[in-house]
Structure of GxGYxYP putative glycoside hydrolase C-terminal domain-containing protein:
Amino acid sequence: MLKVTHKGLYHFLMALFLLSLCLGIAGFDRISAAHAFARPEVASGIRWPQNQALPTFARAQYLDVALLSNAPQDFILLLQTLQGIVNRQRPQIYVINGVPNEGQYTWLNDIHIPYQVYNDPWQVVNKYIHQAQGMVIFDHSVLDTINVATTFAGIHSGIVVSPELATRLSAAPYNLPLLADFRGRFASGLEANTWQYEHLWPQTNHRMLVGLQPAQSVMVPQNNWQSFRTILQESQPIIDDLNRAIYTMDLSRELGSDAVYLRFADAFPQDGWGPSVRQISVSADGKNIIQFVTCTQDEEQYLFDHGRSGCDMSGIDPHRFSDGPRYFVYRFVPPVGTRQLVVNAEMWNEFNVSVSNIKPLVSSDQLIPGSLSLREYAVANQAMVFWLETNNNAADSALFERILSDVQPGTPYLGWFDNEPAGVRLISRHGVYVVASDSFDNMSVFSGLQAPSYPIKPIATPKLGNNIYVTFTMSDGDNAQYDEHHMRYVWDQDPARGSVPLNWSISPALLDIAPVMLNYYQRTATRNDLLVAGPSGLGYFNPSVWPQDNLNRFLNVSGRYLRKAGTNIVYAIDVGSPLPAYVAQAYYNQMNLNGLLLNWWYPQSSSTINSRLPISTQLDATSRDGIVAAIQQNAAHWDGKSPLFIAVSLLAWNPAPASDAAYIAQRLGSRYSIVRGDQYFQLMRKANGLPMYS
């Protein structure tokens, strides 16, 4: 079935006319705080000036929309790489995979580009496949060859295909030639990535790096854990390791089969503070048979299913953790004839431990080919695509370091990591920042749709009094795919938005990758909505790890992006507290901020940088009531003789974050004043005798 949609020719032409007027208002390096900012459109191809973080594509004039519903992963991979080739000259293909949070056509209808929807996505392939120069075949047995094939395809304008699809596409009516076949070429993912670094990297675009998983886990069925019984569970929300101890669990009831399976999951998955496990020991009939520290090679032989759990290697106490829907499962084989099996686990936080002697139906460690939306953008820009572990894998990390050493400080890394803290530290050491965007859809289309960016809508600052001033800030806005999907959903659907002052963190990189999205949030913000920059400026990095000799320069670039994105507040995530003096000074000197927020896992406090810039760390808790209690605890010793300032971080992924803020505000007494971030920092300035921001 074919659906043709034209969104009102008159309104479309008028929108183009008005947009063309806006586009002439300012250039990249000349912006008045009183006016909107927008870049010029690109007639064709890709434009990437030296002073621009990410490229600008040509404006789409018409889009063929491919609906993907339960499409095989190898077909998605084919279509996304074809989209990158076609959209490189002028965006013409738009892909909708399933039903995103904001709705299938929400953004598409907003951009006022005529489009045609194809329920059979092969029709889109058939229309454009002649633009591909040939096929690049990946190897099912080494799935990292999907990324190698993607890099090769970007260089040679090919499409990435499975061996099965290659058979179809090499025959009539396609008759596509073979550009490269990576089957049987490599014994491991590391070998494949090393080869592409040595042979393909010199031919790629070094102004961006792209990190994408080449595979996805098999679907874990709902009944996968039905045979497991809970043997130990934390009953209270705990996020500060107050319950850290060695817990003893008797698994003797599960004896009698080949193995025993022990699963660690999150007791309160809604807040993201699941179990942290440091070490495990197993004894059979009183004799120790197994002992290991987590996140080591000794542990790996017992892990049946990693369950997307992570390793925190940031301190002297590395440990495995599984937050939210994540988990991990060990498989222990007791000696024949064992009568008593006991496990001791050093762990803390919100654990839910269950056990079974029946092997689960599947393990999420079983991988199948996978494709993420950003792949089309990587192909279009001829970037090298790779996936290297940054945590507990020395060989992968060493290759990652070699790649990072080849790029200039200030290079963006798009995608994500196997481990957030380790990955961010690694790239920060080389002056590279991350824009979380692996699941951002149709970036090549949105980066060509220019729209003006507006400064902050002014709001009066209340008179300073001896009150407790509280400001709420949403996390995760640096995540561009959050801005595209979940943020749009809660922004439009949460009925409490606008009822309470709330700071929404957002990525300044939207100026390059999706100006229309930034424009939408600016235009539709209420007086109580304030857009602030997510960590730690233009992108996410640890400022104290960034090369010191480049920090001022990069923060200067970040400052320009913040001003053009219409915000003057940023929150930073670093590896320690407080910020080193030289980092704090660089933020003050280069970014012209109203104020600086620090991420929530430090004790809440407020101070100033060199008696010039107000800075406030953020507190957090595991639930609405937990946040209320944390705020009240921070105010417990307040004497009421001077103002008190408390910054609070709210979890962005909650289904109704504005409602969370409203709930918390309603339960605080009259001595509390909830304010926007700009008001908060202006009040802090007045309380500390600092110059008012203007």
